[in-house]
Specification:
Largest sheet of chain A: 4 strands, mixed
Number of strands of chain B: 14
Largest sheet of chain B: 9 strands, antiparallel
Shape of chain A: globular
Distance between the termini of chain B: 71 Å
Order of helices and strands of chain B: EHEHEEHHEHEEHEEEEEHEE
Strand content of chain A: 15-25%
Number of strands of chain A: 17
Radius of gyration of chain A: 22 Å
Distance between the termini of chain A: 27 Å
Shape of chain B: elongated
Strand order of the largest sheet of chain B: 10-8-9-14-13-6-7-12-11
Radius of gyration of chain B: 23 Å
Structural class of chain A: alpha+beta
Oligomer: heterodimer
Number of helices of chain A: 20
Structural class of chain B: alpha+beta
Helix content of chain B: 10-25%
Chain lengths: 535, 281
Amino acid sequence: MTSLDLHVSPLGRVEGDLDVRVTIDDGVVSSAWTEAAMFRGFEIILRGKDPQAGLIVTPRICGICGGSHLYKSAYALDTAWRTTMPANATLVRNIAQGCETLQSIPRYYYALFAIDFTNKNYANSPMYDEAVRRYAPYVGTSYQKGVVLSQKPVEVYAIFGGQWPHSSFMVPGGVMGAPTLSDVTRSIAILENWKDNWLESDLLGGSIDRWLENKTWSDVLAWMDESESHYNSDIGFLIRYSLDVGLDKYGKGVGNYISTGTYFDPSLYRNPTIEGRNKALIGRGGVFADGQWYEFDQANVREDVSHSFYQGSRPLHPFEGETIPIDPEKAKAQGKYSWAKSPRYEVGDLGAIPLETGPLARRMAAAAPDAAPHQDADPLFLDIYNTIGPSVMVRQLARLHEAPKYYKWVRGWLDQLNLKESFYSKPTEYAEGRGFGSTEAARGSLSDWIVIEDSKIKNYQVVTPTAWNIGPRDSADVLGPMETAFVGSPIVDPEDPVELGHVARSFDSCLVCTVHAYDGKTGRELSKFVINGMV
Amino acid sequence: MTEGSKIDVTSEDLGPPGCEVLVIGCGNLLRGDDGVGPVLVRHLWDRGMPDGARLVDGGTAGMDVGFQMRGARRVVIVDACLTPGSPKAAPGTIYRLPGEELSDLPPLQGLHTHSFRWDHAIPFARWALGAECPTDITVFLIEAAAVDLGADLSEPVAAAMEEVIGLIERDFLAPLRPAVPDSVSVEISPEGYLRMDADLAAGRFPSDAVAAVARGDELWIFPLRGPSSGGLLLKQRNPAGDRAVLVREVLGDEFPIGSRPAFWDDEHRVLRIPLGSRADG
């Protein structure tokens, strides 16, 4: 046994690998292709199964946002079966979704994104030594604390959900289990401890309420200069360093956004329906395209497979969606290059266009006019969008901005639980129906469409945030959002194009990503590196 | 790599409770034999865990596997593997890696939150937990036959899983279960309940699911592996953990009431309760 080879092959466990090809001309990215290298057959697994199978299967799609998968698959069934949702159940689902996202913010930021600040290409920055001191993997002061404490919010998830990840405790009609008073007080203690010891002390260097008062980019800059602790906080450092090394200058993307929204007001979603969804949302959904806001309507979602390894001649709505894989070698002859489909959204006269999803998209939706009193109304990122434009930096800032916001929400929902009332009401399991459930995972909109016939799943389609962002070109050869974001990035050192890493990581796709950079004229491979991977 | 000991994450009583034995099953339930770890954890749960044992369905969230180890004295990790090499190892081959072998794991150099395995989780736990990382860690790996999406466990892997369950029971769980003498006493209530004390229940009937059969003048109580295929349930009747199960329909019209001697028949794996002549109660 002493001779056992420890190089056990990494089983492609989750969504597999992403190959990114970019061409560089005169030091600037001229085009990009994102190629998802693994077939995802979850929809095929689910066909013909019990309608509730999605509650078990979809949380296993991902080891990091399993709670978000559960949340939207439960609502897909709630709308299909026309359940009645006790207020407590809505609150517990909100708390669970919120805690998973609170976990993801620091874990992603420190373990995946900020480590690139220590790239040797930035050695000339006057802040480089400080970047290394804080963000070097494992030894950086901020890295250590942020990664280790990222566990805290999901300990709260586990109190309500029994386990995290991969819980299946949300069921049509509510949640399983009834928390006790000590569960609630313990959850409050864990979260407040996390706020005191990371969120306020390290991320913000000040109070969450003071940060959330920022309404404009100039407010943010004034906030930074207001105190030394703001200036030296991790969010302060992100802004200062980004401006110094130019992360505010590229990675813009398509500039059009989709958020399906998440978190419901318990009194407004007692009977979940597809039509009633938008009005009940606390974190609003919405589409922002060409400077206009549009109400999100799931009926406008399409999946294009023109450049994906699937059969299909026209974009389909997910209720009609098909997942018919074809041999990639043959498909490549037809110009197909990815296992990801290309989600598109029909926006009036603009047609079916690619939209970016994620924290920045949520922030744009939150800035739309006419918010109801229970809804998030937050103008900050609209001002940032108009003032300095979207970029790698702005995407990160949006992600970090959500930590204090969602902390406050989760804390409030914990106070609203009424332990004397129920957490579940038994639904009628109709033999036929259609359902749509959606949420905002930390990295963007995540939705399920289910068609139930004869008490079995006839069709099931999952559209992930990764698919929205990394999907390939569509039938009109329009690039996907991440592909677009690469284009125009300046590459200082083609042998070590850290800029590409920043762009790729700023979308936090659920894939281990290999970037290949080619010279646009000669086709010579300039560099190849793995991001998100075990280096 | 340094130890994250400067960060005091356990200053308050907010972390998960420690335990004597922690069994973690890793892998993806959606991918055939890759799911053997989580499936094994569910089988162990059905069989009934002794006090001091904790189960974790680690799934595909390796970083959290690292965090879960905090405060455990002994850790068992079960995962599937596809060992490279030719000829390939036979599916169902079990590898047992004792802790000493694991101290040589390559140092942690990068992280990917979406693709994180036990061999990352152990050095990660050493980093994140510092002095609180358990030192007694055993890994069982089961060679996979196929990892197709949506498939069930293959036969050789299912058989190997049973074998690993046996090894975990023998080496890790059995020492936590109360030792029960072969001769014990039980009580039969006038309503036809069989009552047994907490140690007898935990030591012989950990799943709380039993089958009751009348054999001649004896009542036989068989432990079941779990309630999923039916059977009678041992219900907890007081805070001490004593159990009761309704066996009225097996006892017939007349049965003795009160304390009765009983003995464990190891050959038949059954608790036998002589009822004597039916009228002597």
